[in-house]
Amino acid sequence: MKPAPFTYHAPVDADEAVGLLAELGDEAKAIAGGQSLVPMLALRLASFGHLVDLRRLDELRGIERRGDDTVWIGAGTTQATVQRSDEARAAVPLLARATPFIGHFQIRSRGTVGGSLAHADSAAEYPAVALTLDAELEALSPRGRRTIPAARFLTGMWSTELADDELLTGVNFPVWKGRCGFAIEEFARRSGDFAIAGATVALRMDGDGHLDRCAIGLFGLGPTAVRARDTEAALLGSDPLEADAEEIGRSATEGLGSVPSDLHGSAPYRTRVGAAMVARAWRRAVQEALHG
Amino acid sequence: MADVDTVDTIEIHVRVNGTSRRETVRPRLTLADFLRVNCGLTGTHLGCEHGVCGACTVLLDGEAVRACLVFAVQANDAEVTTVEGLTGPDGQLSTVQAAFREHHGLQCGFCTPGFVVSVTAFLAENPKPTDEEIREALTGNLCRCTGYQGIVNAVRAAADTAGTAVTEGPA
Ligand SMILES: Cc1cc2nc3c(=O)[nH]c(=O)nc-3n(C[C@H](O)[C@H](O)[C@H](O)COP(=O)(O)OP(=O)(O)OC[C@H]3O[C@@H](n4cnc5c(N)ncnc54)[C@H](O)[C@@H]3O)c2cc1C
Ligand code: FES
Ligand code: FES
């Protein structure tokens, strides 16, 4: 239960950090809050010759309104900071509401936004939120900066679009304006556990009460979080009061290719739980769009 | 056989319960082992060593964290408070500690330091919690003895005592 030996690096800025990652190659790993990485090292599920600590990278921390339509959250910002942030609550309600579902407060005091996204657990909340809101992820490598849309970022269980020597520096969350509703629902055996299945819903109504924007995210139901894009497309333009929440849940979880089956639940069970979570989140999001 | 770790040691400076400590450590030493072995503060317990049980909870710059998931080198220049640091100057129990004793918040005591530290941080940020918030806050610590009810009662009492102390203070 002790991690294998490693060499510790504490670079002072992001350029130095990615330089180290490039130079040390696949023997090196970035460490942020350590809330996913250290358990893996302790259980010897992983070991690295070098850990590159991001703790001194102040440029990776912060929550800032950028223009009218975007909130930038630094990759190194802790989940606890997100939870305490009035800006996050007001401008990115879905992210704020997802945060208390992450582990326990003693985990959130260290765990970071970038760590949650880069770790890319299939049952994690933040990847599903980023996907649902069409967030854009900022990455830095020795080759320069690039922006990765959330839809392209998650490539598989614990795997992402990031190269070995690439860091997430921040996430740009679009601010949805107008008559919007946001909800996240998940089911876990105990509070703080990873979800057996969960769902996110974000929607917006136009002046006539019809849906003009709609996103449904699912997590815990495949190797990565996914969007129920067919169901979303069918709902656009409709009156959400006429939609049947249970039917939306069934439709959103139909035809999922690789729902996990393990001792916490079989694939058909998880799928039914997922459908119920979509229905619950849908109802709450519609209520919020109608009544604020 | 040469110890593979000795090639790599780092000097760190940590304030532990108000006392400055300078130590040379190996990078893989966890903060929990640093506190127990290097500082001799064995109040911080280790149950699972992978973040699940909460027995190792300490305050790092005021926030409750798992000491088994932080490397000591990552606490360089930080302030750490362990359960030993919560008592008053003459060793009198803190409000939270006294409430645990009064309300049967412990039996064997293994989990207790982690609960006491967690609850201290929780009440500092949330001085007037609802019963539901108390239960939610306790989910990050496991206890195999009490059945939790005594712990819930202790936190309720600690919150109410602290609340009364504030309202009864000089206006
Ligand atoms: C008991 C417990 C319960 C938990 N429950 C949940 C839960 O319910 N939901 C949930 O989502 N998570 C949960 N977690 C995980 C937690 O949210 C982690 O904080 C998070 O997954 C990783 O963030 P971190 O900052 O700790 O990253 P680390 O553990 O430091 O790193 C994780 C991975 O991300 C990489 N990484 C970190 N930062 C960057 C960056 N800026 N750029 C590129 N790569 C980076 C690292 O190299 C590593 O591969 C739980 C953890 C524990 C211990
Ligand atoms: S020993 Fe750290 S959480 Fe169990
Ligand atoms: S009192 Fe024994 S584990 Fe909690």
Automatic annotation (TrEMBL), chain A:
Query: Organism source for this protein?
Result: Streptomyces flaveus
Q: Does the keyword Transferase apply?
A: no
Locate the coiled-coil region(s) and give their ranges.
Answer: none
In this protein, which residues make up the domain named FAD-binding PCMH-type? 1-178
Superkingdom field: Bacteria
Q: Under which name does UniProt file this protein?
A: Carbon monoxide dehydrogenase
**One GO molecular-function entry:** FAD binding
Which Pfam families does the annotation name?
Answer: CO_deh_flav_C, FAD_binding_5
Query: Which PANTHER family did the record assign?
Result: XANTHINE DEHYDROGENASE SUBUNIT C-RELATED
| Keywords noted in UniProt | FAD, Flavoprotein, Oxidoreductase
